[in-house]
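Data availability (excerpt). The following record was deposited with the supplementary files.
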Amino acid sequence: MPTAGASRTFRAGLVGVLVLTPVLAGCGLKSGSPMADDVVPGSVGQGRPLRGASLTVTSKNFSENIILGQMIGLVFKAAGAEVLDRTNLPGSISAREAIIKGDADAMYEYTGTAWITYLGHAKPITDPLKQWEAVRDEDRKNGVTWLPQSTLNNTYALAISKKNNAKYHLRTLSDVAALAKKNPSAVTICVENEFASRDDGLPGMEKAYGMSIPPGNIKKMDAGIIYTQVSKSNSCLLGEVYTTDGRIKAMDLDVLADNKHFFPNYNAAPVIHTATFDKYPEIAGLLDPVSRRLTTEVAQELNAKVDVDGQDPHIVAKDWLIQEGFIKNG
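Predicted structure:
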């Protein structure tokens, strides 16, 4: 893990290193395999502007980013390109280096990861658009072109089961602070080890919101167990979750709003090797409409298909693009 921006680099691991569940092997997931789908333009790719192009797509090795990488490849394929699939690379750095060096042409990256981990800034920018603009501008020197971001924001949050929230009616982290002050014993929280100890995790959140959770009420465990504990037991009133995780809906959880904007923005946006973009500027017109449709809620639904239902990320991406009318089966 890079040391630049070390106070927040562990969060970058969520969108770089963490695999929420083992991804099923299947179509499109072997690094370096040609994308063989017979797809044609729908609302994007009319006229096949990438005819004759040979492009490589990549992604990190967790479900959401693989799905997004598959979307790029399928859109390129429908637009006439020959596509080499190098998704599912281990961690953030390998995919990032592939884009910088031109070993890969395109992927979806996260603004917070770039700003904090790659570009070395310790403090995030609160406004999502200003965060993206700052990343876009600074990353140009690295030969990386950022296209407009989506509203898909894969960041930290606290969640509570709808069953328990029927009693407490919590909507924001400020509500949690008020409850902790009024009834400290009621606020039990399950978190990962690192989140429990770092300034940009639980201690920083407590400070930002003026809350004090008794140490005995903080339980540390693996990420996957947290969702089950919050949903199905009374041992954790609250749990650390990731906002785009498919298990939020599957386990009937309420996500509490970070109303003081403590946690960084991790909006997903396409990043393109600049030399590739200079050669094929049509890429922007192909991917912008897709990004505009990608929301945190859409990501939850698509991630659930992989992480809860066990579907192939490639099929999930393809089905969604066809459903939205971006591409069609040939």
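Summary of structural features: The chain has a mean pLDDT of 90.
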